[in-house]
Design goal:
Elements: E1 9-11, H1 17-28, E2 33-37, E3 51-54, H2 64-67, E4 72-76, H3 84-94, E5 97-101, H4 117-130, E6 137-139, H5 147-151, H6 153-157
Parallel strand pairs: 1-2, 1-4, 2-3, 4-5, 5-6
The structure holds NADP nicotinamide-adenine-dinucleotide phosphate.
NADP nicotinamide-adenine-dinucleotide phosphate binds near residues 16, 18, 58, 76 and 101.
Length: about 160
């Protein structure tokens, strides 16, 4: 299949740290990209090759234009949990593949087994995905280096211990 024959992949969280990297890597290998943004002005900050669609994960119907004709979705969920089920339902209606950026909620280390609403949200979205006809790819990365900026940089700069 020539790159131009590949149907587009929709990337949510397109303006975020991870979404931007995913967009760049897809474009690098010739995969057409659709970028979901909440505010049209964000288009100026994305690669010009990406086709920009406005939509919001809290308004499931707003995703339809971006999903129509897409083949796959890279799903970054940073919204409240309320609309996760209907959004997953819409993904299943439109695309064949979903890659979901989850979190390390299955890692047995006690650090990752503390009560954590984000972990519960991600586990719930994984269950929603598993209940569809989709064969999702679940990514459960550990701690991202970007955490250091907000969590540990102040202590490090102040010469304090990071526990
Ligand atoms: N930190 C960790 O160690 C770690 C580990 C594993 C997994 N994760 C997961 O990684 C994800 C965060 O990724 P990131 O660092 O790339 O995030 P980020 O840089 O904070 O970007 C968040 C993205 O989500 C978009 N967004 C926010 N609310 C939205 C909504 N209602 N509808 C549509 N888009 C919305 C933002 O768009 P706007 O530009 O419109 O705001 C932005 O593009 C989270 O799901 C987190 O749980 C993190």
């Amino acid at each position: 299949m020539r790159p131009t024959d590949i149907p587009p992949v929709l990337v949510t969280g397109a303006t975020g740290r991870i979404g931007r990297l995913v967009i760049g890597q897809l474009l690098d290998v010739g995969v057409p990209v659709r970028a979901l943004v909440r505010h049209a002005g964000a288009a100026a900050t994305l690669p010009p090759e990406a086709e920009v669609f406005t939509g919001d994960l809290t308004a499931p119907e707003s995703l339809d234009p971006a999903l129509s004709g897409a083949s796959a979705v890279f799903l970054v969920w940073t919204a409240p949990p309320g609309t996760a089920a209907p959004v997953v339902g819409r993904l299943a209606e439109h695309v064949r593949r979903v890659v979901f950026l989850s979190s390390p909620h299955r890692t047995p280390h006690p650090f990752f087994q503390q009560p954590n609403p984000m972990a519960a949200l991600h586990a719930g979205i994984e269950r929603f995905l598993a209940a569809t006809r989709l064969a999702p790819t679940i990514i459960r990365p550990g701690m991202l280096a970007s955490n250091a900026l907000a969590w540990w940089a102040p202590a490090t700069r102040a010469g304090e211990a990071v526990r």
